[in-house]
Structure to design on (863 residues):
């Protein structure tokens, strides 16, 4: 009996130590505020320098962020927007019990909350050009996983691989169809993953040039992406086939074809079923899908400067949040900056009615700004932010050496929070950029 | 002997030197570009291809016809019709495309095309997959679960049976009817002396189709109903291709990769004591995926299970294992020119198909990697990771079908010799 108790105790102890418990809570620190913009540092663990789409919020105000290190791991954080507390949930390789032959170093997809399953859904990515686009990574890459994260249990799991050697570059989740709909890198194969059964289907290549990073869904459960010409493709989940809508993103014809093939980089799905987005060539748009037929595409003009009818290629905008008739977004990143000397991100506000743009702030600590539609109940907007990141394969390049030598370049990742109403008092000093 | 020894040592030394300076030449090592390469959409009309995307899940068959004219066939999502197209290698263009829908009904994959130069006729075959499954990833499941041999026969909902068809121009396609009931056709050969077609079905039956009587007959069933209690035979593959050698004999591979000839008089098969190369233990799923007859009567081919390149001399009945060119399995296409250069598409859909070349005299491989193709007709470029059938035109132009959704035709001008041993940076 004594022995049995001892064994019982030992087993319990082993189980407790084996489970990765979140680190935290880390309370909010006022030192994180610069001009009323909070830069919440995500450097609890060694992994982490870059956030792309991997940020989401659920109705109870819990924000999830995945921070990529572009080499071999992704750090997961949650931020409770009601209690203002940060948690480090763990590293994805450990949470998914992956070993190095399954290495994952980025979440490139947006993350989606499912009220039905009470889980976040997303896909993983290699995060390097050599492993995906030209399939020439020195260690090879097995492919991306379709994943879920349960914040209540702090547990993570997968629905399996996306396919051999293909990462999940973008995805959208629709509760109506119960499908995670995404695309692969390379080749933009359109993939669906049924979260109820785990059934995976490949609907073939759409775009042999580039892989759009962002998808959206309509209220009927269909998914949308773009083809090589920057035109919308709809996945009809009931018929299980892809439909050419022949609806071009605004001014796609004026963009270079590699830009057009990239499509839109920021999207926010609205409660009414429409979607606001920003294209890779700097044009904001509003799209109202139709159950049958092409739907309505509205051009909201360039993200910066006067509207001369052309495109705007200088402001990289993989981010946006629509709140109270205004669109907020950051301009800059991936070598595309308005201020090419300081290379910081301009925070801009677009009036959706007048289509006018004004700069409301400049972000001091980051040079790229990601995530779309992360707004809490208090009217705060959240984005992921990071300095110029250096991917593993570029580490020896001239550009990387220059970036490392630049002391102002902070390669840390931040969760950025601001309230547009509060920012108003600082907006005056940035008026010069509006002229 | 000593000379060759010396040269191989110096080659090894050169390779080592190249290996040391690899990081600076990494990009060109894997992705050596061809000097001249371009592609075209199928029947392009402005920026859109003529074939709707859901009906163009890739190019699955091609055949060179009269002069520089060639024909090709696509495969579509299950339930959608396949298309045929006509192109010109000299013009590097595919101008005409025709939907099979009302000509050969309910057919979604064109599996094989053969040109008969004597009559100027092209013959073709088709097969279908079950609804909702259309990529060859799912083929394995489709074949191995072979429901008709299952106890639950009522669950055997087969897709429509494959047809044979013929045409002299795309305006006039004649349906020759079903080859074998409830089964699709993988491939066939034209046997002119008997005015017949010999083919393999996707349920592993060898059939003969009499072109005069337009009647089909099963010659041999590779997978008879298995009495084995474990029913293991369901998980077997055989050769999906047949070939006619210089003497007119029809060759194929059967059980565990054993070569056979078709006895056209008795309408049966004759096994020979020669086998396909295989990684040990994988013989049961081995078979020829593609093969081609060279000008000097040697057959070059690739195996499905392992992607091994082999040469087969039908006269001496010797099959040589020439190595496994790529890390992945399968070899969906192979072509050989008169300079003894064998070009192969090595790999499968789950991995990525590399264009590779083998010098049959000097015995070495060159890996050209995944091509990045300019498509002048629609003014864009794309990478093609899934390559399908291929053939040589006038020994210097390699024509490849891109076997992925929205497939293109790729034209590559090849030289009379391969570049030096792999690893030399460009220009050396």
């Amino acid at each position: 009996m004594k022995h049995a108790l001892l064994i019982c105790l030992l087993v319990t102890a082993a189980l407790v130590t084996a489970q990765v418990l979140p680190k935290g809570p880390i309370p909010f620190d006022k030192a994180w505020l610069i001009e009323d913009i909070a830069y919440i540092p995500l450097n609890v663990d060694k992994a982490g320098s870059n956030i792309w789409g991997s940020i989401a919020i659920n109705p109870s105000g819990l924000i999830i962020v995945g921070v990529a290190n572009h080499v071999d791991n992704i750090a997961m954080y949650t931020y409770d927007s009601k209690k203002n507390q940060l948690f480090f949930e763990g590293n994805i390789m450990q949470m998914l019990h992956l070993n190095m032959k399954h290495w994952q170093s980025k979440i490139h997809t947006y993350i989606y909350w499912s009220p039905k399953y009470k889980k976040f859904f997303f896909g993983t990515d290699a995060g390097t050009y050599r492993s995906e686009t030209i399939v020439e990574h020195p260690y090879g890459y097995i492919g991306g996983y379709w994943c879920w994260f349960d914040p209540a249990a702090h547990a993570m799991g997968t629905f399996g691989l996306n396919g051999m050697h293909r990462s999940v570059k973008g995805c959208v989740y629709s509760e109506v169809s119960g499908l995670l709909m995404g695309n692969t890198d390379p080749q933009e194969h359109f993939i669906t993953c049924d979260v109820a059964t785990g059934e995976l289907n490949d609907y073939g290549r759409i775009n042999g040039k580039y892989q759009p990073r962002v998808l959206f869904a309509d209220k009927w459960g269909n998914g949308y992406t773009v083809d090589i010409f920057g035109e919308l493709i709809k996945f009809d989940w009931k018929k299980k086939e892809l439909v050419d809508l022949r609806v071009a993103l605004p001014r796609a014809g004026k963009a270079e074809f590699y830009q057009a093939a990239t499509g839109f980089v920021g999207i926010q799905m609205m409660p009414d079923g429409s979607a606001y987005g920003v294209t890779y060539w700097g044009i904001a748009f509003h799209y109202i899908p139709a159950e049958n037929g092409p739907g309505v595409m509205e051009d909201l003009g360039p993200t910066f400067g006067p509207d001369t009818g052309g495109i705007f290629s200088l402001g990289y905008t993989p981010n946006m949040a629509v709140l109270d008739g205004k669109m907020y977004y950051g301009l800059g990143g991936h070598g595309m900056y308005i201020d090419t000397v300081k290379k910081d991100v301009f925070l801009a506000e677009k009036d959706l009615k007048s289509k006018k743009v004004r700069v409301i702030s400049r972000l001091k600590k980051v040079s790229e700004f990601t995530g779309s539609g992360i707004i809490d109940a208090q009217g705060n907007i959240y984005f992921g932010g990071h300095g110029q990141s250096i991917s593993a394969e570029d580490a020896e390049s001239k550009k990387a050496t220059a970036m490392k030598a630049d002391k102002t370049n902070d390669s840390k990742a931040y969760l950025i929070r601001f309230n547009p109403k509060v920012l108003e008092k600082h907006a005056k000093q940035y008026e010069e950029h509006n002229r | 002997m000593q000379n060759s020894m010396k040269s191989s040592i110096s080659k090894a030394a050169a390779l080592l030197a190249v290996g040391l300076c690899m990081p600076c030449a990494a990009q060109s090592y894997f992705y050596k570009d061809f000097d001249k390469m371009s592609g075209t959409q199928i029947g392009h009309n402005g920026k859109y291809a003529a074939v709707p995307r859901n009906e163009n899940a890739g190019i699955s068959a091609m055949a060179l016809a009269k002069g520089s004219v060639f024909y090709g066939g696509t495969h579509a999502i299950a339930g959608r019709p396949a298309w045929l197209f006509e192109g010109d290698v000299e013009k590097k263009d595919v101008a005409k495309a025709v939907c099979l829908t009302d000509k050969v009904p309910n057919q979604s994959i064109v599996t094989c095309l053969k040109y008969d130069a004597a009559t100027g006729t092209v013959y073709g075959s088709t097969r279908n997959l079950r609804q909702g499954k259309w990529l060859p990833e799912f083929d394995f499941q489709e074949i191995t679960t072979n429901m008709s041999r299952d106890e639950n026969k009522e669950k055997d909902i087969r897709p429509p049976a494959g047809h044979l068809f013929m045409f002299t121009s795309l305006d006039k396609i004649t349906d020759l009817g079903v080859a074998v009931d409830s089964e699709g056709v993988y491939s066939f050969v034209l046997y002119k002396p008997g005015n017949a077609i010999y083919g393999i079905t996707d349920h592993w039956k060898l059939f003969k189709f009499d072109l005069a009587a337009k009647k089909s007959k099963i010659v041999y069933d590779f997978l008879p109903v298995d009495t084995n209690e474990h029913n293991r035979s369901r998980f077997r593959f055989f050769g999906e291709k047949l070939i006619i050698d210089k003497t007119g004999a029809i060759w194929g591979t059967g059980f565990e990769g054993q070569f056979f000839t078709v006895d056209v008089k008795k309408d049966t098969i004759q096994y020979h004591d020669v086998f396909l190369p295989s990684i040990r233990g994988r013989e049961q799923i081995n078979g020829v995926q593609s093969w081609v007859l060279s000008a000097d009567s040697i057959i070059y081919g690739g195996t499905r299970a392992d992607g091994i390149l082999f040469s087969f001399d039908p006269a001496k009945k010797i099959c040589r294992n020439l190595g496994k060119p790529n890390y992945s399995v399968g070899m969906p296409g192979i072509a050989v020119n008169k300079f003894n250069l064998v070009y192969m598409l090595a790999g499968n859909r789950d991995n990525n198909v590399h264009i590779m070349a083998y010098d049959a005299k000097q015995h070495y491989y060159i890996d050209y990697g995944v091509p990045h193709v300019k498509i002048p007709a629609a003014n864009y470029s794309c990478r093609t990771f899934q390559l399908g059938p291929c053939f040589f035109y006038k020994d210097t132009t390699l024509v490849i079908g891109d076997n992925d959704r929205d497939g293109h035709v790729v034209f590559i001008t090849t030289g009379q010799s391969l570049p030096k041993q792999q690893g030399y940076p460009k220009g050396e």
Remarks:
- Residues 36-324 of chain A form a domain with the Methylamine Dehydrogenase; Chain H fold (CATH 2.130.10.10).
